[in-house]
Amino acid sequence: xxxxKNRYRLAAMAGLILLSTSCVxxxxxxxxxSFDQDAGFTQLxxxxxxxxxxxxxxxxxxANSTLPLTFEITSIxxxxxxxxxxxxxxxxxxxxxxxxxxxEKSVAEIEAKRGIEYRPLFQIHKHSGNMVMWANALxxxxxxxxxxxxxxxxxxxxxxxxxHTTRMELTxxxxxxxxxxxxxxxxxxxTSEYLPATSTRSLYTEDNNYILEEDVHVYIRQNEDMEGxxxxxxxxxxxxxxxxxxxxxxxxxxxxxxxxxxxxxxEQTSTYVRYNVAYPLPLLxxxxxxxxxxxxxxxxxxxASRLSTSGYRINPNLQFDFAIYTEGHWEIIxxxxxxKPLLGxxxxxxx
Length: 351
Fold this sequence. Notes:
The protein is mainly β. It folds into two domains: 40-170; 178-336, no CATH class. Helices cover 10% and strands 33% of the residues. It contains three helices and 23 strands. The chain has helices at 2-27, 85-88, 107-111; strands at residues 40-41, 45-46, 54-56, 60-61, 70-78, 90-96, 114-120, 122-124, 131-133, 150-158, 161-170, 178-179, 195-196, 199-201, 216-222, 232-238, 263-268, 273-277, 298-303, 306-307, 313-314, 317-324, 329-336. The chain has a six-stranded mixed β-sheet, with no helix packed on it. Strands 2-11-10-5 form a four-stranded mixed β-sheet. A hairpin with a 5-residue loop joins strand 20 and strand 21 (313-314). It is elongated. The protein starts with a helix and ends in a 15-residue tail after the last strand. Keywords: Signal. This is DUF5007 domain-containing protein.
């Protein structure tokens, strides 16, 4: 009998403990994230180049906040406070659906990895705070320097709090079709007819004068007479009298493997080398086998091999780093302004 009473007492005590615990839990605060008010943007003024996709990364210091944070542009207007529908409405932009590897075998394979989505031309990534200006933004309808441009506000939050950053500045710079650029960034006008080569090595004229980078005049232009859906890039070489130089004279250049994963379907004649390409060039600002160290330009190297008068082997070399942002049929033309260069030991109709 005593045992039975003890069992009842134990059961009643357990029930009271459970009841009191549930009552206490009912009034305990929720488990909130921590939002550190020292968190904030490390960059308050953004100056992207129009006509190309620009991504600003690592531009928010989360301090000791619990991650992830959620970011949202709450307002974007002209500097005078008037609406800026060109930056709030959605436009079709080309985005990567699958990663680009640089091992692709055709333009079609590259394009299959990209798709069209409708997005505002200036965005913030939801959980990183990275800013993006899409390539579709052009000076024909988006304000750019030196004009007064835009201001925008961003809120960063988690369940523990939030922080509003206001009057951040967006001052785009006028687009250039290619880099290095000979455009005036304020007017968009061309300031010089040509660009210098990036570097030269062991390049001499037939008169035995050394060819410097500035002696190679590089013209980047669109061939508006060409047609066709697949876009192209063509290389041409000329001497100082604008007589074509056979590209085959750069006889140590592997034209078939020039920028693999970027240039396709080589067409080579005695006056040019042409490829099918997908624009922009390079496709991503990412170091690849065919880019410069920073990954923001295609790196080209044209090399020949010849014997010097002393019987030594010389490897004349011309290098040029460039980017082209506007889709089209583009040509890069190299003019050796101080004289015909001595290149490979081949028979050529140009001699």
